[in-house]
Amino acid sequence: MTRRIGVLLSGRGSNFEALAESCAAGRIPDAEIALVVSNREGAPGIDRARARGIPTRVIPSKGLERETYDRQVAAALDEARVELVCLAGYMRLLSPFFVARFSGRILNIHPSLLPAFPGLEAQRQALEHGVKWSGCTVHFVDENLDAGPIILQAAVAVRDDDTVETLSARILAEEHRIYTEAVRMVLEGSYRIAGRRVLSAAAGR
Length: 205
Ligand code: GRF
Description:
By secondary structure, the chain is of the alpha/beta class. It has helices at 14-24, 44-51, 66-79, 96-101, 122-129, 164-188; strands at residues 3-9, 31-38, 56-58, 84-87, 106-110, 133-140, 150-157, 191-194, 197-200. It folds into 2 domains: 1-103, Formyl transferase, N-terminal domain (Rossmann fold, 3-Layer(aba) Sandwich); 109-205, 3-Layer(aba) Sandwich (Rossmann fold). The strands form 2 sheets. It has a 7-stranded mixed sheet with strand order 3-2-1-4-5-6-7, with helices on both faces. Strands 8-9 form a two-stranded antiparallel sheet. Strand 2, helix 2 (44-51) and strand 3 form a beta-alpha-beta unit. 5-O-phosphono-beta-D-ribofuranosylamine (GRF) is lined by residues 9, 11-15, 45, 88-89, 109-111, 172, 175.
């Protein structure tokens, strides 16, 4: 049976599109994006989804208490029979309710080598700190910001002439690559969790 993925986004939607491409091309086998939800009207990611004929929902979050909002999103995901939730530039913290409801089935992509530089403008934070390597991280999501066990990371060298834009562009190419890999791995179930460590299912046996 085709595995059903739900994507939550607030903006541009390039990671969503990379996942949609990967499903279409079989790099994520037997899977499809069943629903894209945005908390923001006019998010370009919603237009991208519509252009691909993927079902979308805009559920405005303004003024709603976190759990009240998350219950609406969870209902939409349930209705679409979503099994795995992928955050892709989703600018909201999740409530304990939502995290428990989709326990172990929520992934996020972040543009730094976590735990360095969580939060907004991670690429700018990395440049200003002066690190020589940055990159991106796919991790399981818990109630805390950019926390949760790390599934995959990719490192990107920082160049002397980098700007936030040039560094972000090289990191983004890696984001698209490892998000696909991580989703495939999680859907396959070819991993196990030991404490905070996400290990290959075969490791340590
Ligand atoms: C990406 O850099 C992602 O790592 C971060 O937000 C950005 C979203 O970009 N969480 P896009 O909307 O997927 O293009």
